[in-house]
């Protein structure tokens, strides 16, 4: 390989996502799926090209403005859950609200609603290590949804779950999407991808194929 030649993870990706869509991104390992999701989620910056989020050019925003956009509008769900081990279920779900300076009484009501919705009221004082994988993922999704994001980004959200738990999670995303939240998921599963209204196939960092389910 010649010295100095850039090695692109993504190349010539042109993607427009409408508000309220449910998009599945598929492709073999190393095709750039997670990188694309991280750029959409403002966790990574593209080295070139432009990314507009709600008509704002992300590259032109200051770090603080980007951070505010991310915290206000985006919920992330990871395959590895990314819960905070030292915090209880209740405290993990509450965390995004602390960033948004939501008042204590309001936080309590909002966390209570989430615990009810996900049927995990009885788990609220447990720590992540005391939960099954499916329960940890439910807590991760509850945490992603509590601040009422406009966009949910899910990276292999059912990767560590059994098929029944996986189906429950996908049904949940469908329900959230029907409530108006845009959902973009990265998945290896054809079955999970079919929940999306549009499937984007990546190969070697490029969009190989896009289809409507």
Key words describing this protein structure:
single chain; 213 residues; alpha/beta; Rossmann fold; 6-stranded mixed β-sheet; two-stranded antiparallel sheet; 8 strands
Report on this model:
It is a single chain. The protein contains seven helices and eight strands, in the order βαββαβαααβαβαββ. A hairpin with a 2-residue loop joins strand 2 (52-53) and strand 3 (56-57). It has one domain (22-45, 57-212): P-loop containing nucleotide triphosphate hydrolases (Rossmann fold), CATH 3.40.50.300. Helix content is 36%, strand content 17%. With 213 residues, it is α/β, with parallel strands linked by helices. The chain has a six-stranded mixed beta sheet with strand order 4-5-6-1-7-8, sandwiched between helices. A two-stranded antiparallel sheet has the order 2-3. It has helices at 33-40, 63-73, 89-99, 104-117, 133-145, 163-178, 190-193, and strands at 22-26, 52-53, 56-57, 74-78, 151-155, 182-186, 198-203, 206-212.
């Amino acid at each position: 390989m010649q010295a100095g030649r850039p090695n692109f993870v993504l190349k010539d990706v042109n993607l427009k996502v409408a508000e309220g869509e449910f998009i599945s991104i598929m492709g073999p390992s190393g095709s750039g799926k997670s990188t694309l999701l991280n750029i959409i989620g403002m966790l990574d910056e593209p080295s070139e090209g432009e990314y507009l989020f709600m008509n704002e050019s992300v590259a032109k925003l200051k770090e603080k403005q980007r951070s505010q956009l991310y915290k206000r509008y985006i919920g992330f769900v990871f395959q590895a859950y990314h819960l905070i081990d030292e915090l209880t279920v209740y405290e993990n779900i509450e965390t995004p609200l602390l960033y948004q300076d939501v008042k204590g009484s309001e936080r309590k009501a909002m966390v209570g609603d989430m615990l009810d919705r996900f049927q995990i009221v009885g788990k609220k004082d447990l720590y992540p290590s005391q939960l099954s994988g499916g329960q940890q993922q439910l807590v991760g999704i509850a945490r992603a949804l509590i601040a009422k994001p406009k966009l949910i980004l899910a990276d292999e959200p059912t990767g560590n779950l059994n098929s029944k738990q996986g189906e429950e999670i996908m049904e949940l995303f469908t329900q959230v999407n029907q409530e108006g939240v845009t959902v973009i998921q990265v998945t290896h599963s054809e079955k999970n991808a079919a929940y999306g209204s549009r499937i984007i196939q990546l190969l070697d960092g490029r969009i190989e194929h896009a289809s409507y389910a």
